[in-house]
Predict the structure of biotin--[biotin carboxyl-carrier protein] ligase.
Amino acid sequence: MTPRNASDDPSDANDGQQWSDLDRPPLNAAALRRALVRGGLWSSVDVVPATGSTNSDLVALALSGKAEEGAVLVAESQSAGRGRLDRQWTAPARSGLFFSVFLKPGAEVPVERWGWLPLLTGVAVATGLARAAGVDTALKWPNDLLVNVGGEERKAGGILAERAGDGVVVGIGLNVSLRADELPVPGAGSLALAGAVSTDRDPLLRAVLRSLEERFVGWRAAGGDPAVSRLQETYAAGCATLGRNVRAELPGGMELVGEAVAVDGDGRLVIASEDGVQQPVGAGDIVHLRAGG
């Protein structure tokens, strides 16, 4: 792979730091801006060499009025990346895409429908990766991105949404070029390990953000209605959790075991127990169980 400059803007040149992994060149911030900031949803694209968490940074900027709708913040490395339940997300520098976006559903979308944003983002990421990386990405409810590595389902990314004033900051972490010996846990995966046709992060990021813009704008125009915008239908079609036996680990230490049969109009996972009772789950950890277990 031919290395490219971090940017043709000196301020984006990774603070003068050198990089040595030729398979992991830095992102070109100026080129990303030219491609994405074109009068649509995305108002700015900033790339920083390292930070604690892009979500925390962008939430702070949004609450202080320093981030406009459509702001995109990307980090080449995160030292305090977070998933759901404040789980830590770590990966080598430039081995993935670690970024957050600031979205404003607006008055036309009732607040109770904002919970669809992580699911919407999952659909958008999967669509963008199919186009740019040639990888089928399945969705594990509510916010995990799964890929197939050697016939095994692996987690390659996750999504975290946080309220920020009159908007929502949505963070995406995605393992792109992570190698087998770099996996943080046995169940992790990456686009490279899943056989991606490209691990060039610039076109991958562009594809994901364009897909997210298309999906978000359509959903907002439909007043956030998951049926009218076809979000509910599309999410269900790509959700690896549906039709599976699962264990839901609920807040307060409760558990619910059964078959995941649907995602309802509020974005909740509906689980049918052995006695046929269906219960919607709005929050909790979902464990995919093997057949018979």
The CA atoms of residues 112 and 270 lie 18 Å apart. Confidence is low (pLDDT under 50) at residues 1-17.
